[in-house]
């Protein structure tokens, strides 16, 4: 389908308004997220507390995603984006009030707030993923996903620096209210975005039947099914290290909150550069090759980070390695999502994504349960070495399996045949 045949003649303006709304709600939400994590790091200095906070942030994705998928396919997409933002903003207000009335935030309320924010994201992430292919011509899906990745990377680039700066000058109980401002602006813009209805919108949700349908569709696609299993292993290995970044900077390298923010900024700058390359030159004939590049880049850089001595001189190398790791990250996440979106019709995508997101996230909490005590025992740096080696193994397994190595070549042939049949 080319641009002139696409049902929305002004689709570019529409999708860019949508991306702008996602940028504004995303950046304010991430500023608050970083502020909460840094607060926990500064107040407790505990790997167990940090891993528990990350665990609570992941559990809703694991437990609810299969059941959210059918809702995404059948409920109005705009409603699924707006309501979670409102709920998250209300909890931000509640947490702010509690922090104002007391000297410290009640730890249980911080954990509840992180859980609610994760539930909101559990609804929003598959909704955004399922919306994109309906808003743009098929030929532009990879590039628009790259630009969506650029928006997310820009959020991750700006939010840590902005968060670290605001964390030092604004009390945390007032800083949290920035999330409310972002929600108001983002929702206002989203009201003017035109989101197409799919054929299943308005149908009754049959949760168990729909979950079974999504699982059947996913497992029937052998190449994607194998990539999901490998991605599950990757999450088990990598997520524990990702949750310990603030502790790596502030305890292992003896850094500050500002330096913890700098690492996040640099990683995100790399992601932005990688997303820019995808957004400009994203129509590769075989998108699995850049995915192999991502596994290799992330594995080597994260693994090497764990071998650095724990001093400020080595922190500079830590920053450089994370810039390279950030550059490689979008080549995995963005290109894989584009292939998934092209593998299923829009009316099935939410159900498939619900199952897929849950399976690829399910191992994260398992790793996080053990990583806190393990890191306290063997050291944070050792966790990074394990994550790096495990990532390289996941990439090697993906390459060795023919169905995953050739997945995009097969998909491109199928899409070309479908286009030829329509013509």
TrEMBL record:
Keywords: Cell membrane, Membrane, Transmembrane, Transmembrane helix, Transport
InterPro entries: MFS, MFS_dom, MFS_trans_sf
Residue span, Major facilitator superfamily (MFS) profile domain: 14-406
Membrane topology: Multi-pass membrane protein
Major site of localization recorded for this protein: membrane
PROSITE patterns membership: MFS (PS50850)
Membrane-spanning intervals of the chain: 15-40, 46-67, 79-99, 172-193, 224-245, 265-284, 291-309, 315-340, 352-372, 378-401
Subcellular location: Cell membrane
Coiled coil: none
Pfam families cross-referenced by the UniProt entry: MFS_1 (PF07690)
Keyword set includes Nucleotide-binding: no
Key word Flavoprotein present: no
PANTHER family tied to this protein: INTEGRAL MEMBRANE EFFLUX PROTEIN-RELATED (PTHR23513), MAJOR FACILITATOR SUPERFAMILY ASSOCIATED DOMAIN-CONTAINING PROTEIN (PTHR23513:SF6)
Name under which the protein is recorded: MFS transporter
Species of provenance: Agrilactobacillus yilanensis
